Each structure stands twice: as C-alpha cells, then as structure tokens.
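Intended use. Records like the one below are meant for learning the mapping from a protein sequence to its folded structure. Do not use them to infer anything beyond what is encoded.
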Amino acid sequence: MAKTLDRLNQIASAATTLADLTRSKQVYRFTAAPGTYLYVHAAQSEVRIARHDSVEIVITANLQPPVSWRVAADQDDAAVYFVGIPKVLLGFAAAGAFEIAAPRHTHIILRLENVRLTMDSVTDTLDLPGAL
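Structure written out for the chain above:
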C-alpha cells in the first residue's frame, strides 16, 4: 500500500511539473503607490502598455513555448521590476507578448531589445533617445 501511495505521489508531482512547464500565460500583480517606478526589460517580444486609474500594476506574460523564456518579477519600496527575455539556446523558437497595465501615476522605464511596442490609453510626454 505504501509503494502505491508513493507511486501516486510521484505521478501527481510529475503532472504538476509538466503543467508548470507548458503554462503559456502568467499574470503578475503589484500594488503601486504614487511615486512607484516600473522597470521593464523585454527582448524579442511584443510589449503592450496601457494606463489605467487603478493602483495595481498588472503584467500578463503570454509565452510560447514557456520553457524557452526567463521571466522574473520583483518589487521593493521604490519600484516593480520585470524581466522577460528568451533563453540563449532555446530563444530562437520563442514567441512572447507582455501586456502591462500601469497606474497613470507610475513612472515607467523600458529597456527593450528587438521589441514591438504598443501603447494604449497613454497621455504622456515620451523621450526616445537615439542609439548610444
């Protein structure tokens, strides 16, 4: 009986791991007080930014295949940090799209590498410097 339970636990663990590996959509939510910064580093993907009146930053990552992406998100007192870049060896087949909804009071800093950028509901002054 114990062997059967152990085997069932192993199968359940493998199924959970497989589900995590094939998940193509991940949603990250952060509360953003006035003065909070949002730093986004994205590569070889599509990034869509929209402003809203909520106090929450919501980042939705749609990744294909998910195992070919490195995604990290974190928050401290000053900022929310988000990185979505393809892995070096698997990135050639990667497709990714990041949808970002940020409060109007949030200062957004973008580091983009070969990204298609779309902005909705934006009323801001943008400064896009040339290549350094």
